[in-house]
Amino acid sequence: MGALVWLNDRSISQRKACPITPTDSRTRILDAARKLFYEQGYHATGVATILREADVNSGTMYHFFPSKEALLVGVLEWYGDNLWPEVLTPAEGHAADPVERVFALLGLYRLGMEMTGCTMGCPIGNLALELSDNHPAVRELIDLNFRNWIAGVRGWLEAAGDRLPRGTDLDALAGFVLTVMEGGIMRTRAAGGLAPFDESVAQLRAYFDLLEQAASAAKGSPR
Predict the structure, then answer these.
(1) Is the pTM of this model over 0.70?
(2) Phi-psi category of residue 182: left, alpha or beta, with phi > 0 → left and psi -120 to 50 → alpha
């Protein structure tokens, strides 16, 4: 779900072939499917293409994943398992301040859009648009990925403490950050440039500034 995942996925096809162990086979199938589902979409990606990219035969793939949809479930589980190391931890490395971590995270998504020419989007967002209506089990995993993302951002907001007004709905605020990110990316892809994303993030920044000003004013008010 993050810019670093996108950029890592783009390099998968450049890896050199090496002797395959059973564990490596499963990893390479997941890596190939993740890359292809991101670049081409789920429905446009054929099993034969996945097999070629992973350098495995069909028997090996079906040993680990009995169907293409089971492989999609594996990809979504991979995203969930790697949310922190691939997405949130890098943002924390860019900013110690909990509020600034929110904007560092958005900055990483912006970097991903810039480096892909505003063409690729968010992997989870793309799958949500393509699959949510007709794949209920997959929809639940997509939603879980979003909810885990929101929970991570909520943790940063909670760490901000009294810098935000008392009674602020942190879950809703973290969800709003996700909406700004996904909506900004969608508009940026439509526009073919970063201006819509930058405008969305600037409005979010202004809103956080207002929240912090309100919290500061409340501290100075007589009780």
Answers:
(1) yes
(2) alpha
Of 17, 13, 14, whose CA–CA distance to 38 is shortest? 13
Integer-rounded Cα Rg, in Å, for the chain is 20
pLDDT in tens, 186-203: 999 999 999 999 999 999
SS3 letters across the chain: CCHHHHHHHHCHHHCCCCCCCHHHHHHHHHHHHHHHHHHHCCCCCCHHHHHHHHCCCHHHHHHHCCCHHHHHHHHHHHHHHCHHHHHHHHHHHHCCCHHHHHHHHHHHHHHHHHHCCCCCCCHHHHHHHHHCCCCHHHHHHHHHHHHHHHHHHHHHHHHCHHHCCCCCCHHHHHHHHHHHHHHHHHHHHHHCCCHHHHHHHHHHHHHHHHHHHHHHHHHHCCC
Nearest to 83 by CA among 189, 179, 178: 178
Residue 44 identity? A
